[in-house]
Amino acid sequence: MIYNDYIRLITKALTFKTVSTDPGYKGEILAFVEWLTQLLKDNGFKVTTFKGSKTNPIIFASYILDKTKKQYCFTGTMTFSPQTKQMAGIQIHLS
Q1: Is the CB of residue 14 less than 8 Å from the CB of residue 6?
Q2: CB-CB contact of 83 with 10 (8 Å)
Q3: pTM of the prediction?
Q4: Where are the alpha helices (DSSP H) in the chain?
Q5: DSSP element (H, E) containing 51
């Protein structure tokens, strides 16, 4: 069940054309930010979006189960290859 949800969400995420180096994709980037923000909020996360005037938005989301426990930070990026039109990689970092 969790794996199927993961595949469904990754598949949906990859439908957005988020080529961050091409200003022509700004609308797709903003649509992705809206979709991901809503997904996180719907699942109980507190979400803040930082929008720079010359940069792409950055989403910060937090979900605290127990304030007495140690907290971790995950960051991630998805890379898409315009040449092959396929996902080139996902990086997730834990700190």
Answers
A1: no
A2: no
A3: 0.68
A4: 2-13, 26-42
A5: none
